[in-house]
Amino acid sequence: INSIIDTDTMTPCLKKQKNKFEFFLVARLSFKDKGTDKIIRAFSKLVKKYDAHLFCMDFGTDVEKTRLLINNLGISEHVTFYNFIASKPALNKIFNSHDFVIGDLSSGHFGISELEALACEKQVISNNNEITSIEKGIPILKANSEEEILNQMINLCNNKNLPSGLRDFILKNFNFETF
Question: Is the pTM of this model over 0.90?
Fold first, then answer.
């Protein structure tokens, strides 16, 4: 991936401690392209054991299917939809207002949003086929299947087996001075 992340805009900030674990699904809602149905099903299992909430953008080809799946799984009270956000400062605030970020789980590649979340020091669940040396070193929690997604969510809630050096990775590989 050949991108620059604006690390002046995408910065971490201290977040008030909450009693709930908050996940932000940054990928557009697409079952086929982004695997968001697997995320919803895994999250429905997580909320049986953990006090958690999922935030996602009301954007993508499968918004209505997503709402129906959430209703059918009985987890509506655990999910909030945001209007689509294109503003980087607004997205930075959203990243920093939640505990964890979930990105694209189907394509096998991480995108700009996942990198921006790392710049904000957020743990990210994503799928990565690890082609380049940079991709091999990215500090994300890898998941593809529903079971892997659930296990990574549990790891996040239990603060177990988490990568470190999130922002440092971005500063080293994706900031203006790098290019």
Answer: yes
Count, residues in the chain? 179
DSSP character string of 117-175? HHHTT-EEEE-----SHHHHH---EE--SHHHHHHHHHHHHHT-S----HHHHHHHHSS
Give dist(CA 144, CA 176) in Å, integer.
31
Mean pLDDT of 57-76: 97
In this structure, what DSSP letter does residue 84 have? P
**13-60 pLDDT per residue, tens:** 876 667 899 999 999 999 999 999 999 999 999 999 999 999 999 999
Task: Identify the CA nearest to 144 among candidates 88, 92, 84, 102.
Answer: 102
CA–CA separation, 169 and 67 (whole Å): 35
> CA dihedral in degrees (77, 81, 82, 85; nearest 10)?
150
The pair of three-digit structure tokens given for residue 117, joined into one six-digit string = 């979340």
Tens of pLDDT, residue by residue over 137-156, are 999 999 999 999 999 999 99
Please say whether the beta carbons of 91 and 85 come within 8 A: yes
| Residue 99 confidence (pLDDT) | 95
Least Cα distance to 76 among 39, 46, 44, 34 occurs for 44
Give dist(CA 170, CA 40) in Å, integer. 28
